Amino acid sequence: MPVKNFLSHSAFLLPPRRVSTLKQWQQLQKTNMSVKGMVIALAVIVCATTVQGFPMFKAGRCLCRGPGVKAVKVANIEKATIIYPSNNCDKIEVIITLKAHKGQRCLNPKSKQASIIIKKIERMNFLKYQNV
């Protein structure tokens, strides 16, 4: 068989139908990969939004760890903040900001000093909204 006839022989060439099928198969592979990528991205987004609502620790996302101190010297108090129970933390938190940039302390909400501070702040808020 001459060389020219050997190369042009139809047994060694892919039929045009197979070439188009191969192209379709490659397109299908690209589509499958993009669908897989979208499914993975969607799964990551769903997991991230679900996990974001879960408390990270047993106590939730409370600002105060542990019960807090029983009392703080009144002369050192610059500001008192009460944080009521919410979705993030299921307990009342009393946060005391100290003067002279000495930081913050968590006051035990069951202590006598904390109950006095809570009553005073609630009274101030009540009076503030009464005068409006």
Automatic annotation (TrEMBL):
GO terms for molecular function: chemokine activity. Residues 59-121 form the Chemokine interleukin-8-like domain. The keyword Metal-binding does not apply. The chain crosses the membrane at residues 37-57. GO terms for biological process: defense response; immune response. The keyword Transferase does not apply. Keywords: Chemotaxis, Cytokine, Membrane, Transmembrane, Transmembrane helix. SUPFAM superfamilies: Interleukin 8-like chemokines. One of its GO terms (cellular component) is extracellular space. SMART domains: SCY. Belongs to the intercrine alpha (chemokine CxC) family. This is C-X-C motif chemokine 11. It comes from Callorhinus ursinus. The lineage of its organism: Eukaryota, Metazoa, Chordata, Craniata, Vertebrata.
